[in-house]
């Protein structure tokens, strides 16, 4: 599958997944609210398996498994023997971690929060139902990354839709049985806890089963092989050590961030509100950066394995320019639509206005994260997991320092936005350091034209964003129809994005930017 078709497949699947994910979040907000103790308790519990999963996915799988699978695919059996051993090892390892984490639910909730006794108890009950998601997240990531490495991109991008559909149905059942707006902790019963948290876990199971079906359709044997000797565990272990430490640092940062924002739970944006703001941020990140960057990562890995370093440099520059065309306008559009977009995940216009600064703080890092995605994965393509640990250590140290400063100096109602901004600022510095280290590794990156292209895109995105903001202001701003309901927030966000996009494309055409022709050609092909 070519890069264009692969990116289109991932983008379409990711977009459909994100849209259904937004609907899922809207229904969840209707059930438990976005600013309240019960919603924050569920957000903390449901985030626990995701946090541990990040160690598995971002660290071990992305950094270690993909390059290894690319290498063994050239073997006579297509690497099937290796994949069977790898799958077996993954089941055993992730299963063991899941069992331990489930028994440690009370401790984990305490580590990630500063709740009162009643809210802590509710979060623990949610956690017992949510943590088993970890096993299925791990299997989903393992199967999906292996399929990606073999240039089978569609299932991994589309399977999460099953999760969202199951969750939407389950959350609607919850509202039908118990009513919406269940933000008061003392009103919860064991049956309510089971329906809400059990639904979330059932959705993760569904997406994993869908991926397992496509795994077999792809002709890869789904069997177990416990003969792990000779599969290169020593080499993978060395890589995994660094990637594990890298993602472990991220989790340490996440713990400190949670401890700083959880005291705001109840009346101000806290864990749930930050999660919803992050969900909006992840829409352009997933649809653009992951969709375009993932196929490029596979190609960079292939060229790095073949020691075609000139092609690797070409891949880096090309991927950054293609990403830049879309990421710049996405940043401007989402920033202009911050309040309506936040209204989609809040119970009132006042809550939307309170959550919007959190979203804006995250958006500061969207463009640098696109660069970091490519730079970091170039290191992984060369089998270098130690250097990403170094620049992640820099980022983690900055986030920890800035977050602690926020905790000691900022009022409770501003902490969520301040913590998000601290993370973004640290991410920008991390990207600069990572790019410098990559230049030391590969020599001159030949990115002068790329940086100039990104600068031009940024300059054009400014008036585009102002045009979108103008639509928001003309319709009444925070007092207008765009904040009347969740649906009006969604419609308003689309209108603002359309206005920003139209101005951006017009400016690219007016300046005869060559990237516009490339981008439009790619869209037509897709």
Automatic annotation (TrEMBL):
InterPro entries registered for this protein in UniProt: Lipid_II_flippase_MurJ/MviN, MurJ
Transmembrane segments: 21-39, 51-70, 82-106, 126-144, 156-179, 191-215, 236-256, 276-298, 319-341, 353-375, 387-410, 416-438, 450-475, 487-510
Coiled-coil parts of chain: none
Keywords on record: Cell membrane, Cell shape, Membrane, Peptidoglycan synthesis, Transmembrane, Transmembrane helix
Domain of life of the source: Bacteria
Pfam families, per database record: MurJ (PF03023)
Record flagged with keyword Cell membrane: yes
Entry membrane topology: Multi-pass membrane protein
Compartment list: Cell membrane
Name under which the protein is recorded: Murein biosynthesis integral membrane protein MurJ
Lineage of origin: Bacteria, Bacillati, Actinomycetota, Actinomycetes, Micrococcales
